[in-house]
Amino acid sequence: MKRALWQKLNIFRRRRSSSCHGEGLQTEGNSLTKISIVGSPNVGKSVVFNRLTGAYVTVSNYPGTTVNVSRGKAKIEGKEFEIVDTPGMYSLTPITEEERVARSILLEEKPEIILHVVDAKNLERMLPFTLQLIEARLPVILELNMMDETKAVGIEVDIGKLEQELGIPVVATVATTGQGIKALRRTLVEYATS
User: Fold this and answer.
1) Does the pLDDT value for residue 18 go beyond 70?
2) What is the DSSP string of 70-87?
3) CB contact at 8 A, 46 and 123
C-alpha cells in the first residue's frame, strides 16, 4: 500500500548531484481560534510553538495525568489564537499516556486548526498519520519542517503536488532559523478566516 501511495503522489525527486509574539494567555469566556500542534517526537513542534507564541506560555499537567501540555496565545495579522503544543504522537490510535492526552485534545477540545508538523526528510514514514487526520475529517495543515536537512540529503519535495493530492494546505519551514514561519502564519490566518 505504501509503495502505491508514493507512486500515486509522485512528490519526491532525488537529485542526482549530490512577528508574532504571545500576548498573555486565554482567559475564561474568550473565544480564540484554537490551533493544536501535533506530530511525532523530535520533529520541531516545540520550536514551532515558541516561534508562534513567544515567551508567554503556561505549562501544566493535563487533567488526571502527569503529562505536560504547553498553551500559549499568539496574535497574527490582528487575529488572536490559542496555541496548544500536544505531546508527541504517531497516530490516532494511542498506545502511551502522552498519545492518549494528545488524542483527547484533538477530539474533545475540537481545535479549529490542527497543525501537523513533520520532519520533511522522513515524510514517507510520517504521512500515514497525516492521512489519518484527513480521513477523520479534522482541519489539518501540514508543516514540512527541517527542509534544510531534507535538501542536504538530496531530497526535494514537490509541495504544490503534495498539497493538491492531499487537499490540504502544506507549508515548508526551517523552524530553528525561522525560515517559512511568515508563510506559516499567513496560512494559519487564511485557513482560520476561510
Assistant:
1) no
2) EEEEEEETTEEEEEEEPP
3) no
